[in-house]
Structure formats: structure tokens, C-alpha cells
Amino acid sequence: MNHEEKILCTGSNGLLGTEFKKIIPKAIFTDVEEFNICKYEMMSDYISNKKIKKIIHAAAFTSPPKIDKEPIKAIDVNIIGTSNVVKLCAENQIDLIYISTDYVFDGSKGNYSEEDPVHPVNKYAWSKLGGECAVRLYDKSLIIRTSFGPNIFPFEKAFVDQFTSRESVESIAGKIIKIIDKEIYGVVHIGGKRRTVMEYAKALNPKKTILPLKREDVTFIVPKDTSLNISKYNNIVSSDIEKQ
Predict the structure, then answer these.
(1) What's the whole-model pTM score?
(2) CA–CA distance, 50 with 42 (Å, rounded to integer)
(3) In the predicted model, is pLDDT for residue 230 greater than 60?
């Protein structure tokens, strides 16, 4: 990784941030006490004496059922907070990578490409799409839509009627890092093969008994199929291999 000490990561204590610490340990990892994305002046002061060239914005309020109960917090963190990060990058000419979600799609067809229209079906996804809207106003930005979970599936149940490209956070972090050094802007999808959440869960925990769960069994709206077409990402990575 070139100049990883010039990379700043938000959400350093989250799943993705924790993995990034293993892969790019010399990067700058912030916490809310020193770099609160809801407080622009604090953020601006923090980077004033640092030579930041890229921000990976992974901090977010991510629980769909909790966001249904606390939508204002989602507005503050996922929309206003992300807008603050965009403004910070724009005013300091810092490249931005925004970690978004496959849930920006309604789940009606699956195999979504970067060009497919977005249409969230729950408040969590709307808040992340709100972040995307701000990011798209800045030309030196990359939106990564993806889906990941803990390296060991933590729940007793898994959806048998929801399809996804979700992978372990270790896998997704490794895939993201492969394109960190590149000057790629716009949108790219990163994930694995299409499968049910149950199949994903069993792949992580082959010896664990995981009970079936249906989307209708939960209180929040779950899209049916948010699997991602990752051809663009594969082409980017494969072109590098061919050059070697």
C-alpha cells in the first residue's frame, strides 16, 4: 500500500475499520472523541496539521430495526455526517471512498449493476442513499456498494428467502484494499457470489446449527434480492494482474 500513512479511516472501531487496521496499520484511524463526523469544525481542526490524501468513510449507523426507531440519529450520522465528510474532502482536495450498501436497491431483481436505478425499501437504506447523494456532488469520490458481516455468523437464525452477495468482513476488506491505491471515481460494487443468507451463514459456520428465518418473520422491511453484479470490480482487478 503506497502512502498508507496519508489515509484516514472513519468508523475505526466498526467491523470494517477493525479489519483495515490489520491490513493498513499505518493509516490514521479516528474515533468519535477526536473526529466526530457530526462536528465539522472538529474534523477540520483534526486534519489541519496532517497530510491526508484519502479518506475511507466507513462510519455509519447501520441497524435497520434501530433506525426505524431512531431515524433522526440516522439523519445526523448517515446523511449530515457523510455530507460533512464530503465537504471536508472537497475543501481540502482529498480523495473520498464512501462505503455504501446493497440495500439501496429494492431487491426486486438482483444482480444489480452500478447503472441500475436505486430505490430503498427501508429507512436504513434511505439514509445511506442520502449519503450517496452528497458523495456524488464531489468528483474525486468513489462509492463502494457492498455487504458484509462478522467473520463468524453471530445469529441463531438466517434468512432462507433473501439473496445477497454478502461475504465476511475479512473478505470484503481484502477486496476493497485491492483498489484503494487507484484513481477510480464513481461507483463500484464489491461482493461475492449470489446466495441466500442461510447459505452465506453456513459457509461461515459449517458445523453450527442455524435455524431458518423468513423475511416476513421480522418487524423491519427486508429486500428480497440485493445481489450485486461485480463485473466492473473484477475487470479492474484482472487488468492489474494482466499488467504484471
Answers:
(1) 0.96
(2) 14
(3) yes
